[in-house]
## 1
Amino acid sequence: MVILEIIFAIVVTGLVLVGIVIALIVKVLSGGSPKPRVGKEELMEEAKMIQEMYRGLSRLEQRVDALETLLLERGDKRGTADDAGAERGREKEGNQ
């Protein structure tokens, strides 16, 4: 289940990045020739949008890191429990 969540997060991150690249390509292709002057307000709005995307991707990266940590911790606990169970099984076989 956790593996599916990690895969989902990676897929979502990839889709977001692909979307950004496609949007940039469309913007460049539809723009034709560069505009002679870009207004200060337009630059500020564009900078805000880029910052919001960056913050969103940063949060997504933190969530993926947290999920990876949880997955590794669960794997360690399960590995320890499996080792303990195997040890108990060996002890029972030795007592018989």
## 2
Amino acid sequence: MKWLVSLLVVMVAGAGYLYLHPDLYRTLVRGTPLEREKAATLYQWRDARGLLQVTDHPPPDGVSYRRLELEGDITVLPRVPRE
């Protein structure tokens, strides 16, 4: 019974450490089935009229834009910040 409690404590401590250090977790799971896949790459920019554009292809040359990398488990787009 002692060994079971000890094993449980070690597992919880390891899970907590990986939770607090997500970069280490990503390194450990890279190339395994636990790795998250990128769902989409989106591009966000303002057109000549000042309207916000969000597409799956980059804007025309010379237009500044923000690249959004979405994970596979995200089902909605992030909130658009007010400028």
## 3
Amino acid sequence: MLASVDIETGEERWSQRLSCGGAWASPIATAEHVWFFGTGGLTSVLRVGPDGVEELRVNKLVAEGRVHGVAAVDGKFLVREDSRVLCID
């Protein structure tokens, strides 16, 4: 579940379930997009704004096992799973 909360009042502005399900690794954000790497091998690519979330794409990650960490390097993602590291270009 992803939610936005007003920092001054603590009131929830909006909330939305992600198609990728629960996330194993920390999300990665740029100025325009946020990537969530889900427990079932799905990745949700979002555009987040003050009024809500637009899910732009859901991709299937070719991981073999649990994703433990993700890093953005030179325009690519490095994905660490149980026994290997993937480079996604």
## 4
Amino acid sequence: MNKVNQKGSSLLLVQFYTTVLLMVVVYAVSYLLSIRDVANNDVWRTKAYYAAEGGIYNACEQIGGNTATSIFMYQIDGSSVKVEVIGRIGDQVALKSSALLPPYYAAAFVINVNTKTGKITSWEDIK
């Protein structure tokens, strides 16, 4: 074999493989960081949803005997929760709950509740 023509070829191969490996590592780190952000967003959205749900249950407890109040405001786990009475028909009351969790997470839904029994008769998420 002629070793004179092969001088420096191993250095080029090491540089090539190092560059390819570095590109793979950079891609993997950026992918994992984006997955972490998506999971974090889901956690905050879930917190806002459960805060709105907690607000609606608090309002259901308070609305049983109180028919005059139409807006309830709560602070639940850092969320501002607003529950509004949007309609009344007989024993049925329609409530809309919305929760805002800074900086930009929100959840809302509408329920119908029977004021005599305290049972929720319908539930609809607002998208």
